[in-house]
Amino acid sequence: MIEVQGFHKSYDRTDAVRGLTFRVQAGQVLGLVGHNGAGKTTTMRAIAGLLPPSSGRLRVAGFDVVEQPLEAKSRLAYLPDDPQLFNALTVGEHLQFTASTYRIANYRARASELLAFFDLSSKINAEAAELSRGMRQKLAICCAYLQDPSALLFDEPFTGLDPPAIRGLKESIRQHAQQGRAIVVSSHLLALVEDLCTHFLVLAAGEKRFLGTRDEMRRVFQRTNAEAMSLEDVYFHLTEDSSQPNKSRVELPVNV
Predict the structure, then answer these.
(1) CA separation for the pair 224, 94 (Å, rounded)
(2) Where are the alpha helices (DSSP H) in the chain?
(3) Containing domain of residue 143, as a range?
(4) Most exposed of 106, 137, 174, 252 (fewest Cβ within 10 Å)?
(5) Residue 43 sits in a domain of what CATH number?
(6) What digits encode the pLDDT tens for the residues 11-61?
(7) Which pTM value belongs to this model?
(8) C-alpha dihedral sign at 80, 86, 92, 98
């Protein structure tokens, strides 16, 4: 569903992402993790067609993001880390606008289900400017799900959400994966996505440090006493000294 081949992005003389290759298949939830500035948002914006790659190929559902942008974007929903809403539109009008943009017929029943799931039904007539940060985030999620996309990109989606909302969002992501969507969730906090993702892609200084399943990530290193390192320990080991580009990488031969 999502294919990235040799993706490279430079800004002037700065390389934000270098030679990144990975795939996300239907039913998989890929955790894109790394410190701030690792290249996560750059990668997601490029897949979404909002940022042209310096080199490499990106595809969504088989469509090239650069050469076939409308076909690719129509099958993708992207939730940025700070969704920009129309402050003068109500919650209900946002969903109506999304349905009109993506030509979704008979959207009202699905919209009502989403608002109820994310506890926004009572806010249907409230303007976006009146909503809290968490409510704005949940409205953006509802709009993304309403599109019924083949692939979803969530960039730091838990920002501003309270614990019940975080639990609900995770449940909804699992449901969509079970229905055959390919999903990417970025985070700089591994603890937030450890129980959610089926696979992990660890970035540091714009480069891939690890690509594989949760269990494979745990098995990458062993302590001297043969006790397996925790996932968080492995993550810090993989990303330490990320400013040194020649540091040896650990990568398993796993096709994600």
Answers:
(1) 55
(2) 40-47, 69-73, 91-101, 108-117, 133-146, 163-178, 190-193, 214-219, 231-239
(3) 86-148
(4) 106
(5) 3.40.50.300
(6) 888 899 999 999 999 999 999 999 988 999 999 999 999 999 999 999 999
(7) 0.88
(8) negative
